[in-house]
Amino acid sequence: xxxxxxxxxxxxxxxxxxxxxxxxxxxxxxxxxxxxxxxxxxxxxxxxxxxxxxxxxxxxxxxxxxxxxxxxxxxxxxxxxxxxxxxxxxxxxxxxxxxxxxxxxxxxxxxxxxxxxxxxxxxxxxxxxxxxxxxxxxxxxxxxxxxxxxxxxxxxxxxxxxxxxxxxxxxxxxxxxxxxxxxxxxxxxxxxxxxxxxxxxxxxxxxxxxxxxxxxxxxxxxxxxxxxxxxxxxxxxxxxxxxxxxxxxxxxxxxxxxxxxxxxxxxxxxxxxxxxxxxxxxxxxxxxxxxxxxxxxxxxxxxxxxxxxxxxxxxxxxxxxxxxxx
Amino acid sequence: xxxxxxxxxxxxxxxxxxxxxxxxxxxxxxxxxxxxxxxxxxxxxxxxxxxxxxxxxxxxxxxxxxxxxxxxxxxxxxxxxxxxxxxxxxxxxxxxxxxxxxxxxxxxxxxxxxxxxxxxxxxxxxxxxxxxxxxxxxxxxxxxxxxxxxxxxxxxxxxxxxxxxxxxxxxxxxxxxxxxxxxxxxxxxxxxxxxxxxxxxxxxxxxxxxxxxxxxxxxxxxxxxxxxxxxxxxxxxxxxxxxxxxxxxxxxxxxxxxxxxxxxxxxxxxxxxxxxxxxxxxxxxxxxxxxxxxxxxxxxxxxxxxxxxxxxxxxxxxxxxxxxxx
Lengths: 326, 326
Prior knowledge:
Chain A is of the alpha/beta class. Helices cover 51% and strands 12% of the residues of chain A. In chain A, helix 2 (15-23) crosses helix 3 (27-38), helix 3 crosses helix 4 (42-51) and helix 3 runs antiparallel to helix 7.
C-alpha cells in the first residue's frame, strides 16, 4: 500500500526501466511486464529479450488435471509449504475463457489471494486471448518474468482440456498430474496420454474414499522413464494432508533433473517449440501489418480466391522475407 | 462392389493419376487423396495444388453445435433432400479424438452409411491428428477434394468445442448453428460468440418441448449482418420435420451470397487464413527436416537453452529462408 501511493503514476514505464525494476525484485514491475505479454504488445518482445539472460534459475512445475480436482487448493498449500522453507514462490494460473461461462473461475483466484501480501509470493492469473498456441507462449513468457523476479519455484496451473497437458509437459521442468477418485458406480478411466506426461501423480480428495482403486490403477500403469518412476502422492488439499510429501516429491524430481542432465534436455526441447512458435507468430504479424505487407498479402489472398494460385504456393511466397530485410 | 474387384490393386497410385480419376468423378480416387491429406503426406501438397484450379463450384455448409444436438441426423436428412433435388452431396465429418473417449462417435458414422452406395453422395469422416489448426486445414482441403469431385453441396460437421465454430464460420460459405431446447429447470444460455457466426440457426428436437423459449431468445438476440437476417428453423431430425425448410434456407443463403458478392469476400477471407496456416506449417516442417535444417535448428535451440539468444531473436533467424532456396 505504502509503495503504491509513494511511487508517482507515470502513463507508461519504459521497458528498460521496467526490466531493471523487475530484476531488483519489484513485483509491481513484474505485473506490468506480464500485462504487456498478455496484451501481446510489441514491447513484450523487447522485455522478454532483456529479461531472458536472467532466467533459468527457477524450478518450473506445471499442474494439470480435470476441473474440480483441486489444483488451485493444492498449489495454495504448496505455496505456504515452500514459503516455510524460505523459498520464493511464483504462480501463473491459466484461466481458459470457458466457452460456456465466458470468464475466469473467480473463486479459485480469490482463495489464493491470502498469500498476496507476502513479498516472497507472486500470483498471477493469465487471461486467454486468441489462439491456444499464443496462450502457451504468453504463459511461459510470464513464467520467465517470475524467474527473473527471483522466484525459486514457479507453479503453472492449467485446466486439463485437450492439448494443454502436453504443452505443460513439454515446457515445465516437472509436470504434476492431479486426479481425484470418482465415487459411485463408475469406471474411472485415465484420459489418453495422461500416463506419459506426469513426473508426479497426485490423488487428491482421498477423504472421498475409493482412492485405493485409483492409486492401484495408476501404480499398475505407470512406468519408469529415463530412470524416474513417478511417485503417487495421496492428498487432501483442504486439510493439508500429504502436502509435505508432495513438496518433497517435487524437490526430489528437481534434484533428479539436475543430476541426470535431463533439465537441460527439457530446456532444449522447450526452446525448439518456442522458436517455432515465435516464428509462426511473426508470420501472423507480418500478415496483419497492413502498412508494409498488407496490400501484397491482400492481392495474394485474392489470387487464391480466384484460383490463380493455390494456398500452398501462396504460402511459399509469403515465407520469402519482406523486401526491406534485404 | 463390381468396380472394386475389377480395378487391379496397385501399391500406390501416382498423384496425377489420382487427380485425373478424381476429376472424372471417381469416389475411390477422392478417398485416396483425402487419406493423403489426412496423413499429411508430402504428396497431399501436390494433389491439392493440382485439384485447386478445379474447385470453387460447391456450396460449402458448415454445421456446428453442442454434442447431442443432432447435427449428424440433420445432415443425414439433408443429404436425402438434396439428392431428391438431384444435387450431388459431399459430407466431411470431423471427429475430434475426444480426450476422454479417445475415439470417434461410431454410431453417427454408421447411421450415415446408408447413403454410401449412392454415387451422388460422398461421406468421409476425418480423424484428428496433431494440432487443431492442422485439422482445420486438412478438413477444408478434403472439402476441396469433394468440390473437385463434382459435389454441388458439401456439408462439414464439427463438434462445437472451443475454436472450431469460429473456424467453420470463416471457412464455410454458410454456417449452420444447431441448438436443442433444454428441458427442466435450467437457464439456457448461448455459448459466447455463437450469435455472431451463424447464417442459419436450427432448433432441433423441438419434440422435447421448451423450444419457444429458445427460439424467442434467439430471435431477440440475432441481428442482421450485411443485409442477411439469419432464419431460425425448427426441426425434428429423427422424423424429418423442418428439413425442407432448412434446405430452403441454405439455398436462399447461397443465392444471397452470390447476389451480393459476399461469397467472394468469404473466399478471400478464407484464403488469407489458409495462406498463413500453410506458411506456418511449412515452417514446422522446415524445423523437422533434420537432413537440411535440423542440425542448425538444434544448435539454435541449444543456444536458447543456454540463454545465448532469446527465443524471439532465434525465430527471426529461423524465418530466414533455407540456403538452398538461392
